Amino acid sequence: MIGIVLIQTVFGIGVGTQQSESHPSLSWQQCSKGGSCTSVSGSIVLDSNWRWTHIPDGTTNCYDGNEWSSDLCPDPTTCSNNCVLEGADYSGTYGISTSGSSAKLGFVTKGSYSTNIGSRVYLLGDESHYKIFDLKNKEFTFTVDDSNLECGLNGALYFVAMDEDGGASRFTLAKPGAKYGTGYCDAQCPHDIKFINGEANVQDWKPSDNDDNAGTGHYGACCTEMDIWEANKYATAYTPHICTENGEYRCEGKSCGDSSDDRYGGVCDKDGCDFNSWRLGNQSFWGPGLIIDTGKPVTVVTQFVTKDGTDSGALSEIRRKYVQGGKTIENTVVKISGIDEVDSITDEFCNQQKQAFGDTNDFEKKGGLSGLGKAFDYGVVLVLSLWDDHDVNMLWLDSVYPTNPAGKAGADRGPCATSSGDPKEVEDKYASASVTFSDIKFGPIDSTY
């Protein structure tokens, strides 16, 4: 084993000098009442989890494959002091490209030194801060092309309650901050995050047995999540998930809700309250050649309605509309026994859906839509991603899940086979897959489409 001198003068993870960090530009539009929209010059940044992590003055890896260096990373603080996050070659290494108001995320990218799978990027407000949104009494619109996403893939656009600066001001060790994509969290309290609060997540690290690039550590990174869009060309859903802690929260043990016994005892509602048209009784709405033809781009409009119609009011409803071929298409109406014939997410819809499907109502327990609104008050960050699922093959989105439902209502979520979505097969067969997000607009309700 090569002896490596531990460096003790960095005092937190640093940034590398092997590759300059140049954020790809991405414009979006800020709209005002009446539909007048102004272009905003923005950019995106790659999540730190995807970045090369190595020693400051060389190329020795701190993290290689799905394991930490035992020499450089014997404990969280030492590891952070010994390592840097490198700049990103967005197109060459990660398959990410932008043009004007459009961002394309590739699935499998074979670079000079490694093969990259998927990506996760954030919209920046400036070079060192994420763009913060408060969605209450507002409307968020974008156009998406899912025509190249098969079963088992998920082109996702969503919001999470991350720190605006990626945790740089809250945590001494989190120096790279938003400029290098730090601070990620979501309602699943992911344990695969390599650096949480600036500390390497090396404690109890277990390399994945089916993912050559990932593993899990002792801690998870939790925060409220609003899934505006999770989709491939066969299935789609939008889903709010609420956490009881404001902003990013580092969990451990029961507070993470990891095991089946603790799932509903953690700080986050992992199930959420989803609106999936197929699951809710309409199997002719979303797909190739259907009412919304996924062979073509579609514009997706999401409205966050407050009880009193003001920006400070309590969140009471999440509405969805689509625009394709010059026509505005209303969301589907629920056709499931025990649920009212509605076309939006409300607390009443969520309560009825949980009861009709026999699911635990953690959404209500964690605060319902008013709880989601409190996270919006804190501020949320826009995330774009493309991924495959090494846990359950994305069956929860596009197939039957659980796979042996014994007639369980709500298990049928999409048309994909229960044998589909295996990451090894997906990564081999659909390596050229991609998703394109474009024409992001934000403003008052009915101002962006």
Automatic annotation (TrEMBL):
Claim: Cell wall biogenesis/degradation is one of the keywords in the record: no
Listed name of the protein: cellulose 1,4-beta-cellobiosidase (non-reducing end)
Originating species: uncultured symbiotic protist of Hodotermopsis sjoestedti
* Record has Hydrolase as a keyword: yes
Fetch the Gene3D superfamilies from UniProt: Glycoside hydrolase, family 7, domain
Keywords associated with the record = Carbohydrate metabolism, Cellulose degradation, Glycosidase, Hydrolase, Polysaccharide degradation, Signal
GO biological process entries? cellulose catabolic process
- Domain of life, per UniProt, equals Eukaryota
- Report which reactions are catalysed by this protein: Hydrolysis of (1->4)-beta-D-glucosidic linkages in cellulose and cellotetraose, releasing cellobiose from the non-reducing ends of the chains
Report the enzyme's class at the first EC level: hydrolase
What Gene Ontology molecular-function terms does this entry list?
cellulose 1,4-beta-cellobiosidase activity
Q: Known EC number(s)?
A: 3.2.1.91
Entry-linked InterPro entries: ConA-like_dom_sf, Glyco_hydro_7, Glyco_hydro_7_sf
Q: Which family does it belong to?
A: Belongs to the glycosyl hydrolase 7 (cellulase C) family.
